[in-house]
Design brief:
mainly alpha
Length: 86
């Protein structure tokens, strides 16, 4: 059983990496600036955690795609060489 804390919400998952990163930067800026109530700070912290997970998931996905492409290239070196020659 997974809790909401462990999984980003569907709305957050819909964000691209850059969007999530930019919003995370804004959340951190607001937390560092202070002047928010405890409740607001907690909500910002929770949102920041969620956005960080989205960023991490996006980066993990990109890494998996890159690893798969590199593995495919290594398993078919003849095809790569033929594609490189005119």
């Amino acid at each position: 059983m997974t809790s909401e804390v462990e999984q980003p919400t569907a709305m957050s998952e819909a964000l691209g990496y850059e969007q999530a990163r930019d919003e995370l930067i804004e959340v951190v800026r607001r937390l560092e600036a202070g002047g928010t109530t405890l409740e607001e700070s907690l909500a910002l912290w929770e949102r920041g955690e969620e956005l960080a997970k989205v960023c991490r998931n996006r980066l993990d996905g990109a890494r998996a795609r890159l690893d798969a492409a590199l593995a495919e290239e290594e398993s078919n070196p003849e095809e790569t060489e033929r594609e490189d020659t005119p």
